[in-house]
Automatic annotation (TrEMBL):
<dbReference type="InterPro" id="IPR011701">
    <property type="entry name" value="MFS"/>
</dbReference>
<feature type="transmembrane region" description="Helical">
    <location>
        <begin position="61"/>
        <end position="82"/>
    </location>
</feature>
<dbReference type="InterPro" id="IPR036259">
    <property type="entry name" value="MFS_trans_sf"/>
</dbReference>
<feature type="transmembrane region" description="Helical">
    <location>
        <begin position="36"/>
        <end position="55"/>
    </location>
</feature>
<feature type="transmembrane region" description="Helical">
    <location>
        <begin position="369"/>
        <end position="388"/>
    </location>
</feature>
<keyword id="KW-0812">Transmembrane</keyword>
<feature type="transmembrane region" description="Helical">
    <location>
        <begin position="299"/>
        <end position="317"/>
    </location>
</feature>
<feature type="transmembrane region" description="Helical">
    <location>
        <begin position="89"/>
        <end position="112"/>
    </location>
</feature>
<feature type="transmembrane region" description="Helical">
    <location>
        <begin position="223"/>
        <end position="246"/>
    </location>
</feature>
<protein>
    <submittedName>
        <fullName>MFS transporter</fullName>
    </submittedName>
</protein>
<feature type="transmembrane region" description="Helical">
    <location>
        <begin position="118"/>
        <end position="145"/>
    </location>
</feature>
<feature type="transmembrane region" description="Helical">
    <location>
        <begin position="394"/>
        <end position="415"/>
    </location>
</feature>
<feature type="transmembrane region" description="Helical">
    <location>
        <begin position="266"/>
        <end position="287"/>
    </location>
</feature>
<keyword id="KW-1003">Cell membrane</keyword>
<dbReference type="Pfam" id="PF07690">
    <property type="entry name" value="MFS_1"/>
</dbReference>
<keyword id="KW-1133">Transmembrane helix</keyword>
<feature type="transmembrane region" description="Helical">
    <location>
        <begin position="182"/>
        <end position="202"/>
    </location>
</feature>
Length: 431
């Protein structure tokens, strides 16, 4: 039995070129560590603010906005920076800063000085690391495996991500109950340190770019112009920009809605996020057949539609569904599954489309400029949702997000640039 299983595993590995690539496997292991840690922090950090610090809806909105502000202020120069420097050192440095930032939360809490203002700072620095390190990570992956295998790689990441989404929130719930939320964040900080050790000597096509004689502003201008003159990128930019505004608004209010309107505990929230991991697993299974049958745009539009359904379902959950708070918690858990499946189905094809249509020389500027154009609107969404939650009700704020999600889905379905995407994309040539 064991020998037969070992033979099947060996045959699978021989057929899979990515898993035969030792550098990709190391990169993948690093991503696994970061996924597990990030899902623990995704539950622990909001609970620090909502429960320990008694944050108001407006303060939760500011917290969400703080993590997105770097994309609005720094994304454009970051793109030029990435195009002018090797990506691996930038990636490692961002992980180190992220580890130190997260490690400060339990330390300051232990000293008795943790405040909502400190959490704003943590969110702001984490946003900067996500901007710079995340951009470097996307470009480095393209250099590591090539454009042709991006969908295959993304499906592998999604499969592992689904496992992390199932296991990590349960671990987070136990750690939060046992250590309290601030100390649970240590797991994520240690994950970043281990990731640095794994990646530090990684071999890949990551040469130092030739020094640019152009002024940074000229490079920024060229990056914006390239996206504007590429209809597919232009459409993806406004669509993802509106989606991020809605998602950050939803994220700012959903934890408060679950804890205060539905009465869910940290443990129940952890279970809800665990079930959400099944949604990520479903997306990893569905993305390749959907992309093969309907193209990457069809898979992406399916994801957007599912997220809109989740946005609409959450505020419709009553405090006692079928006369029971448990019924409401179960409904919230199913919404989490739907949302996670939709998010991954949206972003895997979205990122692949961006990479395929962009020449190597523009990858850094494209990634960061697109992140600027798409995430710069996120602070407005978080702040507006926080304002609505504060002055009307949390349920009303979530309902406004739902209306926006449905409208966006219809607009994207009928967008001409997404209905006429060729089957085999090639990098667009800058004008």
């Amino acid at each position: 039995m064991l020998s037969a299983l070992r033979l099947k595993v060996q045959q699978y590995l021989e057929r899979d070129a990515l898993l035969r690539n030792g550098n990709f496997v190391r990169y993948w292991i690093s991503a696994i560590l970061n996924d597990f840690g990030s899902y623990i922090s995704a539950l622990a950090l909001p609970l620090c603010s909502a429960i320990l610090l008694h944050a108001t809806p407006a303060q939760m909105g500011i917290l969400g906005a703080a993590s997105a502000i770097p994309f609005a202020l720094l994304a454009l120069p970051t793109g030029v920076f990435l195009d002018r420097h090797r990506k691996l050192p930038v990636l490692l440095a961002s992980k180190l800063v992220q580890a130190l930032t997260l490690g400060s939360v339990p330390l300051v809490y232990w000293l008795g000085h943790l405040s909502i203002e400190w959490m704003y700072g943590v969110a702001l620095i984490s946003g900067c690391c996500s901007l710079v390190g995340g951009g470097a990570e996307q470009i480095f992956l393209t250099s590591l495996i090539g454009r042709e295998r991006l969908i295959e790689a993304q499906s592998k990441f999604a499969a592992v991500d689904s496992v992390a989404r199932v296991v990590a929130p349960g671990i987070a719930g136990v750690l939060i109950q046992w250590l309290t939320a601030p100390f649970a964040v240590i797991v994520n900080a240690l994950g970043f340190i281990c990731s640095i050790l794994i990646l530090r000597n990684l071999k890949a096509n990551d040469p130092k770019p030739e020094p640019s004689k152009q002024h940074m502003l000229r490079d920024i201008h060229d990056g914006l112009l390239f996206i504007w003159r590429t209809p597919l990128l232009r459409t993806l930019a406004w669509g993802a920009g509106i989606w991020h505004m809605l998602f950050y608004g939803y994220a700012a209010l959903s934890v408060l809605f679950c804890t205060r309107e539905l009465g869910m505990t940290a443990g129940l929230l952890g279970i809800a996020q665990m079930v959400g991991g099944v949604g990520v697993l479903l997306s990893s299974i569905l993305v390749r057949p959907l992309s093969a049958r309907y193209g990457p745009t069809g898979a992406m539009l399916t994801g957007i539609g599912l997220t809109a359904c989740a946005f609409a379902a959450m505020p419709a959950i009553p405090a006692h569904l079928f006369g029971s708070a448990t019924g409401s918690a179960v409904a919230s858990t199913l919404v989490s599954l739907l949302l996670d499946c939709g998010v991954m189905l949206f972003f895997m094809p979205y990122m692949t489309l961006r990479q395929k249509v962009t020449p190597d020389a523009y990858l850094g500027r494209m990634v960061s400029t697109m992140r600027f154009l798409t995430v710069a609107s996120a602070p407005a969404g978080a702040l507006l949702a926080g304002y609505l939650g504060e002055h009307l009700s949390i349920r009303t704020g979530l309902t406004c997000v739902a209306v926006g999600g449905i409208a966006l889905t219809l607009a994207m379905v009928f967008a001409p640039a997404l209905r006429n995407v060729p089957e085999h994309l090639a990098p667009a040539q800058p004008s």
